[in-house]
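Hey L., structure's done. Input below.
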Amino acid sequence: MPHGVKPLRRHSQKTHPHRIGKARPPSKREEGGRRVEAPRIEWEAVKREPSEFKRKLLAIGYLTERLARLGVKTYVVGGEAVEVYTSGQFITGDIDLVVSDRKKAANLLKSLGFKQVSRVWINPDLNIAIDIVGSNLSGSKDKIRTVELAGFTVNLEGVEDLIVKRLYSYKFWRQKIDLDQAVVLLKNYEDLDMEYLRKKATEQQVVETLEQISRIT
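Output:
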């Protein structure tokens, strides 16, 4: 097993790869004439986190909870999902998010000091960039995994879909890092839906590559 990689199992679609820091119980406050739960941590606490990896996770959790209170569903996808699943073994640049309401997400990011540069939202105080890649998941919602980050509940793109996308990138663009990521994900998750994985791999013309790495993991 690669250093720093912890295998996870799906437990009723909920796993707990990271519990960062000590989250306080949510407090109640008034908002729009109704009582709502305040975030488990303050945004300033996210800024103070010295570890870039942990700071990104805290930011993801904070944003997910704030957006949920606005009725917005958030999913962590792409390279950032791989980074979380591999406990930081593969570091990505932008945090890729799918949100059900891009306008509400944009307004929240602005209020937290993010500035939009092209399609990416950048916060210089946090050294974090967020890319809202869409409003709809390209993979299966049934394969989404729910994890806990510092007391926050976060939705990650399914491991099966990530593996297929990484293999597709490797096959057609020869990105070796994507093959490495697919191998690690396949090796460290024993509860994969192999029938679904092979079906998606066949649809994307990467089933032969999947079979090849399956023999070495």
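The beta strands are 14-15, 28-31, 34-37, 74-76, 95-99, 115-117, 120-123, 128-134, 145-149, 152-156. Residues 52-69 form the longest helix (18 residues).

-- N.
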